[in-house]
Amino acid sequence: METTDLIKKVRQIEIKSRGLSANIFAGSYKTAFKGHGMSFAEVREYQYGDDVRDIDWNVTARQNKPHIKIFEEEREMTVMLLIDVSGSREFGTTSQTKQDQITQIAATLAFSGIQNNDKIGVVFFSDRIEKFIPPQKGKKHVLAIISEMIKYKPVNRGTDIDNVIKYVSNAQKKRCTTFIISDFFDMHDYKQSLTIANSKHDIVAIQVYDPREKELPNIGFMKVRDAETGAERWVDTSSRRTREAYAQWWKDTNEHMKNAFLHSRVDSVSISTEEDFVPPLLGLFKKRV
Fold it and tell me: Which are the contacts of 5, defined by CB distance < 8 A and separation ≥ 6?
C-alpha cells in the first residue's frame, strides 16, 4: 500500500473510531471495564454515617477531631488487544473483509481506552506470535497501532489461540483487560489456558465472521481455497451432502468456541462483517455492568 493511501485510510478509521468512542462508547467502556483497586485521595472530617473503619487515627489525634480517609478507584488500566492476523481474516463477501471489521473494532476500543487514561498494548498472532506492541498511552500510539493493523503482513497464516493466551498470561504480570479479536477458526484446545488467563486477567472475546462462512450457496462447481493452508480444490455446491458437511463444520467450530467461553466464564460477542458493530459491542458492555 502506498504511503499516501495508508495515511488516508488511517485518517478515515481515526475519524470514525474517535467519534464513536467519544460520543457512544466512552461512558459504557468506563462502566464495563473498571479499575483494579483503590487509591488514597484525601482526608476530611468525620461525618455522621461514615464508616468508622476509615478513621485516620493519626490525623484525628493531631486535630482533636475525628477524620477519615477517602479512597477512589484506580481508573488507569492496561488494555491488551490480541488481534488475529491469520489468513482467514482476508475473507469477505460483503462491503468489507473480516480484517476491515477487526481493524475498526480494535481502533474504537483503543480510542475508548486512551480517553479513559488507559495504556493500550497489542499482540498480532497467527499460529505464532507475530508482533508485540508494548502498552502505552496517547493518540500518537493508537494511530501507530492502526497503521500496523492495516499494513502488517504476517509470517504465518494459521491460527493458534492457545499459544497467544499463554503468551499474554506470561508477559503481563499485573492484571489487565484483554480483548481477543478473531474469527476463532481454531480447533486447538484453548479452554484450559483461557480459564487460567481469565482468573488472572479480565478476558473478553470478540468473534468476527462473514455471513457466507455459515453456509455454502447452491451455485454448482466452485473453486475454493483454504486461506490458512493455501490448499485449493473444486467443490460441487449443488450437492446437498457437501453443503450439509460445510454447515456442520461451522456448527462444530462455533460449539468448540462457545464451550471454551462457557467453561472459562469469558464474556463474548459475535459480530458479522455485514452489520454495524456498535450495537453488539454496546450490548456486550451493558452485559458486564
Answer: none
pTM > 0.90: yes or no: no
Please tell me the distance from the alpha carbon of residue 46 to that of residue 39, in angstroms, as a whole number.
19
All three cell numbers of 165, joined, read: 493466551
Q: Give 17's contacts (C-beta < 8 A, 6+ positions apart).
A: 104, 107, 108, 110, 111, 146
- Asked if 206 contacts 278 with a C-beta cutoff of 8 angstroms, the reply is no
CB neighbour list of residue 27: distance below 8 Å, 6 or more residues apart: none
Cell reading at 247: 454447515
Q: What angle do CA 75, 33, 96 make, to 5 degrees?
A: 125
Q: Over the chain, what is the mean pLDDT?
A: 89
Single-letter amino acid code for the residue at 64: N
φ, ψ (nearest 5 deg) of residue 134: -60, 150
pLDDT level of residue 1 (50, 70, 90 thresholds)? low
Written as nine digits, the cell of 209 is 465472521
C-alpha span between 208 and 184 (Å, rounded): 8
**pLDDT class of 133 with cuts at 50, 70, 90:** very high
